[in-house]
Design brief:
Length: 227
């Protein structure tokens, strides 16, 4: 008959090995990242509401971002880059493909106290400006967007799952030289939901995919490096 002590050594080794694995898995990625840079590649559809009704806008944003911590769990952000826009049946100009730029500021919060569950929130303000030219016409679209989102973040080893709701507000104008006209527009809808999945490829590098529904229907890829 084997004594309990004969089993204790391999059992202790197993427990110590499991503890070391869990410790290394949690230490493998930071819960409270500092500053970061990122590459954003995304497209979405949203309604622009003109005086004559709503027109579906197809927007592409391809740019970079930078985040700098200002206190525990809170970071200020700067983002900008290349912008494409196409508005279905726009009331002033002929069918045109617009290109230009965007630039914005923001703040983001992500809690770091919970091991596996925390809350996150984002607030941004972004300027968009695109131009297009056709036969005998020059057109411009400019709009200012406020974006706010809130929801939980689930963490498991290298994975992050985020979801929640958002609110968007925009004010813009379309100017067309051919018709010598200016039309104002706003957001056709204001609210929706988001879902994101992020994976850390190493301690400071991650890749994520994020989707939105409701007022803004789209998807984007985010490649981030933290420091």
């Amino acid at each position: 008959m084997r004594s309990f002590g004969a089993h204790r050594t391999p059992l202790a080794c197993l427990i110590l090995g499991l503890a070391a694995y869990l410790s290394s898995a949690q230490a493998d990625v930071p819960y409270a990242p500092g500053g970061s840079t990122q590459l954003d590649l995304g497209r979405y559809r949203t309604e622009f509401s003109y005086a004559d009704g709503e027109h579906l806008a197809h927007v592409g944003r391809y740019g970079i971002g930078y985040a700098e911590p200002i206190m525990d769990d809170v970071r200020l952000t700067l983002h900008g880059g290349y912008l494409t826009t196409d508005v279905d049946g726009e009331p002033v100009s002929a069918p045109l493909d617009f290109t230009g730029r965007y630039l914005g500021l923001g703040a983001e919060y992500e809690g770091s106290r919970g091991d596996h569950l925390n809350l996150a929130a984002t607030l941004t303000y972004t300027w968009h400006d695109v131009d297009a030219s056709g036969i005998g016409t020059q057109s411009n679209l400019t709009w200012y967007e406020t974006w706010a989102s809130f929801g939980p973040v689930l963490r498991w080893q290298r994975w992050r799952l985020s979801f929640g709701g958002y609110w968007q507000h925009l004010d813009g104008s379309e100017t067309d030289s051919g018709a010598a006209a200016r039309l104002d527009f706003s957001a056709g809808r204001d609210t929706g939901a988001y879902l994101g999945l992020l994976y850390y490829v190493d301690r400071t590098g991650s890749v994520g995919i994020y989707g939105t529904s409701g007022a803004r229907k789209g998807i984007k890829l985010v490649f981030r490096r933290e420091f």
